[in-house]
């Protein structure tokens, strides 16, 4: 699907433990990081997201446990499972996203290319489809 990419982050671990590296502004994360947030202790049956962003690009890393992310570009839908800390999902702007099926121990870190601006969110799926298919 155009606008998303599943990536394998470099693991520089050794006998002292694991070390996963993700750097902004290069091949790892193709934007400068302006915001970081994380989702954890999500109750069973909860879905997060349910929106698209006009300007923000995202980078998702599930550092513990697992979760699923449904991505939708207005034409194609795909479900990505993040269950390894070295696997990451890059998402371009204007991709509808829904994060769900969090394991009890899931910790999902999200890196964003933009500071929070509620005006850039599209929270109605029908409006999203109108805008993305113009």
Describe the structure.
With 134 residues, the chain is mainly beta. The protein has one helix at 125-132, and strands at 4-8, 35-40, 48-53, 58-64, 67-72, 77-82, 87-91, 96-100, 107-112, 121-122. The strands form two sheets. It has a five-stranded antiparallel β-sheet with strand order 1-7-4-9-2, with no helix packed on it. The longest helix is centred in the last third of the chain and has 8 residues, at 125-132. The radius of gyration is 15 Å and the shape is globular. The protein starts with a strand and ends with a helix.
Short account of what is shown:
The protein contains one helix and ten strands. It has 134 residues and is mainly beta.
SSE pattern, N- to C-terminal = EEEEEEEEEEH
Radius of gyration: 15 Å
Shape: globular
What level of helicity do the residues show? under 10%
Strand tally, please?
A: 10
Report the mean per-residue pLDDT as an integer: 94
Number of helices: 1
Distance between the termini: 18 Å
- Spans with pLDDT under 50 lasting ≥5 residues? none
Strand content: 35-45%
